[in-house]
Design goal:
about 525 residues, alpha/beta, Rossmann fold, 4 domains, seven-stranded parallel β-sheet, six-stranded mixed β-sheet
C-alpha cells in the first residue's frame, strides 16, 4: 500500500511506515497539489498545518486512514472523513508531558515577568523593582478541560502547592480527586481562579469560551494561559482586558490564525507569546510520530486503532474479546441481506453470553457493513456504516443479554420489512465461525464464501435431485447441513459450494415441485 507523509515527522515514525509499505514524503503541498495526488494513496500522515478538507477527501478514492501526529484534529474534516469511511487516528498521549510543561513554563513566566525582564536586560537596563512578581503557591488554578494534558497540569500545579479547580462535563468528581482537583462548574472557574488555563479541542462549544463577558466576571489581576487551541480565548477581548488592566497577564502559545500577524494580542501589554511550541520537544515529536504511525499500520492491516477519533474507542480487553466476532458478524449481515426478500427497514442486533459484557458497538457496525455491502454504491466499512444506514432510513437497535443459552456467546441478526422477518445467528466455536440459525432452524456449519440455501418439502429424493442438478452443472458441494422443525414438514438445507451457482441452475432447482425457495448466498468479504 502507499502512504503519503505531508508534514515533517520524526524519522523513527517514517521507518515504522517503510517497514510495511511504500512511503512518499511530500512536504509543503498546496491544497490543490494535495487534492491532485491524494487519490493514489491509502494512508495520509499530517500534523497541524495541512488541512484535510471535504474537497481533498472527495479526491481520496483509495484513502483508508488519516494519521494526525498530535492531539487535536480540527485540521481534518471529521464529518467528511466519516462519510467517506476513512478512519482518523491521532496521538493523544505523545505530547502530554510537553504540553503540560509548556503550560507551567508560561504560567511561571507570567508570574515572574520573565520575558519583560529579559527584554529589559538586553536593552542594558537594571530595573529590578519594575519586575516584582507573584508566587503561585497558595493561588487558585482553574483548569478548563480535564483530559490527559489537563490532569498532567493539575499534578504539577499541586506540586507547586496551588489549589486546583477543574471543569469537565465528562469527568467525575472521584476521577478528578485522584489528581487533587475540586470539580466545579465553569462559572466557579471564572469567578474564583487566579490563573486560568484551557485544555480543550476547538469546536462550537469551546470557541470563545473565555470572552468579554467571562473576563468581566473575573477577579482583578487574573492570568490566562492558552496552550490548547487558538480561538478558545477571544483574543480581542483578552487584549482589551490587558490594556485596561483587568487582567494581570496572558500567555499564548496558540492563536486563532497562525502565524498571528494581525492579532491584537501581539500589541497588548503583559504578555508572553510563543509560536505554538506546546508539543515541540524532541521527546514529544518522537512519541507522537510513533503513536500515529503505528496506528496507521494497524488500520491498513485491518486491525482496530487504539485512538480512532471517529470510531468507538475500545479498551484492549474489549478489542481482544470482540475481534473474532467482527468477521463473523459481517458475514451474518451479508447472509441476512441476501436471504431476506425485500428491503430491510429495521435491523436488530442481539448479543448474548460472555461477549455481552463488552462494548459491542463495533459488532453493530460490522453487521451493518455486511447488510449494506451489496446495496451501497459507496465503500462501506466500520466507520461509515451507521451513517450510511441512517441515510437510507434503516433503523438499527442493539440488545445485550447475559444468557447465551447453550452457547458461550451468540450474535443474532433480525431483519424486518414489508415482506416479513428473517433471522440469522452465529457463534465462535474452537476459534472458528459457525452459522447456527436461519429463521427457526438451528444448524451448525462454517460459513463459506459461496452457499446455496433451499427451503423445500421434506420428501424422499428431494435432496438427491438438488445434488444431481448441481452435479450436472459442475458445481461441487463441500459441506451440507439439513434442518427441520418436524418430519415431513418444510425443511431447510444449507450447502457450502466451491463454485458459483449460475442463475439458470438456481432456477432449475426452484422448478423442482418440492422446492419452495432457493437462495444463492455470496458471503465473501471485500477487504
Amino acid at each position: 500500500m502507499k502512504i503519503l507523509v505531508a508534514e515533517p515527522l520524526a524519522k523513527q515514525g517514517i521507518e515504522i511506515l517503510r517497514a510495511h509499505h511504500e512511503v512518499d514524503e511530500k512536504i509543503g503541498l498546496s491544497p490543490e497539489e494535495l487534492a491532485a495526488i491524494i487519490g493514489d494513496y491509502d494512508a495520509l500522515l499530517v500534523r497541524s498545518q495541512v488541512k484535510v478538507t471535504a474537497d481533498i477527501l472527495a479526491h481520496a478514492t483509495r484513502l483508508v486512514v488519516i494519521g494526525r501526529a498530535g492531539v487535536g484534529v480540527d485540521n481534518v474534516d471529521l464529518e467528511a472523513a466519516t462519510k467517506a469511511g476513512v478512519v482518523v487516528v491521532n496521538a493523544p498521549t505523545g505530547n502530554t508531558v510537553s504540553a503540560a510543561e509548556q503550560t507551567m513554563a508560561l504560567m511561571l513566566a507570567l508570574a515572574r515577568k520573565t520575558a519583560a525582564a529579559d527584554a529589559s536586560m538586553r536593552r542594558g537596563e537594571w530595573k529590578r523593582s519594575s519586575f516584582t512578581g507573584v508566587e503561585l503557591r497558595g493561588r487558585t488554578l482553574g483548569i478548563i478541560g480535564l483530559g490527559k494534558i489537563g490532569l498532567a497540569v493539575a499534578d504539577r500545579a499541586r506540586g507547586m502547592e496551588m489549589t486546583v479547580l477543574g471543569y469537565d462535563p465528562f469527568v467525575t468528581a472521584e476521577q478528578a480527586a485522584l489528581h487533587g482537583i475540586n470539580v466545579v462548574d465553569i462559572d466557579a472557574i471564572i469567578e474564583q481562579s487566579d490563573v486560568i488555563t484551557a485544555h480543550v479541542p476547538l469546536n462550537k462549544a469551546t470557541r470563545g469560551i473565555i470572552g468579554a463577558e467571562q473576563i468581566a466576571r473575573m477577579k482583578p489581576g487574573v492570568m490566562l494561559v492558552n496552550v490548547a487551541r487558538g480561538g478558545v480565548y477571544d483574543e480581542t477581548a483578552v487584549a482589551q482586558a490587558l490594556t485596561d488592566g483587568k487582567l494581570a497577564g496572558a500567555a499564548f502559545d496558540v492563536y486563532e490564525t497562525e502565524p498571528p500577524t494581525d492579532s491584537p494580542i501581539l500589541k497588548a501589554p503583559n504578555t508572553v507569546l510563543t509560536p505554538h511550541l506546546g508539543a515541540l520537544t524532541a521527546e514529544a515529536q518522537l512519541r507522537v510520530a510513533e503513536e500515529a504511525c503505528e496506528q496507521v499500520i494497524d488500520v491498513l492491516a485491518g486491525r482496530s486503532a487504539r485512538y480512532a477519533v471517529n470510531a468507538p474507542l475500545l479498551t484492549p480487553e474489549t478489542a481482544r474479546a470482540i475481534a473474532p466476532y467482527l468477521p463473523l458478524t459481517e458475514t451474518l449481515g451479508r447472509v441476512l441481506a441476501q436471504y431476506f426478500r425485500g428491503a430491510i427497514k429495521t435491523l436488530t442486533v442481539d448479543v448474548a453470553g460472555d461477549i455481552a459484557n463488552f462494548d459491542v458497538s463495533q459488532l453493530t457496525a460490522a453487521a451493518l457493513r455486511g447488510v449494506l455491502a451489496n446495496s451501497a454504491s459507496e465503500r462501506v466499512n466500520l466507520i461509515n456504516a451507521a451513517f450510511l444506514a441512517k441515510s437510507r432510513g434503516l433503523a438499527v437497535s442493539e440488545r445485550k443479554s447475559a444468557d447465551g443459552g447453550t452457547f458461550a456467546s451468540l450474535v443474532t441478526l433480525t431483519a424486518d420489512g414489508d415482506t416479513g422477518k428473517a433471522t440469522v445467528a452465529g457463534t465462535i466455536a474452537n476459534g472458528e465461525p459457525r452459522l447456527t440459525r436461519i429463521d427457526d432452524n438451528w444448524l451448525d456449519m462454517t460459513p463459506t464464501p459461496l452457499m446455496l440455501v433451499t427451503r423445500h418439502m421434506d420428501k424422499p429424493g428431494t435432496m438427491g435431485r438438488i445434488g444431481l442438478i448441481l452435479g450436472e452443472a459442475d458445481v461441487n458441494i463441500s459441506a451440507m447441513v439439513l434442518a427441520r422443525v418436524e418430519a415431513r414438514q418444510d425443511a431447510l438445507m444449507l450447502l457450502a459450494v466451491d463454485d458459483d451457482v449460475p442463475d439458470k441452475v438456481a432456477e432449475a432447482i426452484r422448478a423442482h415441485p418440492a422446492v419452495l425457495d432457493v437462495w444463492v448466498i455470496r458471503a465473501a468479504t471485500d477487504r
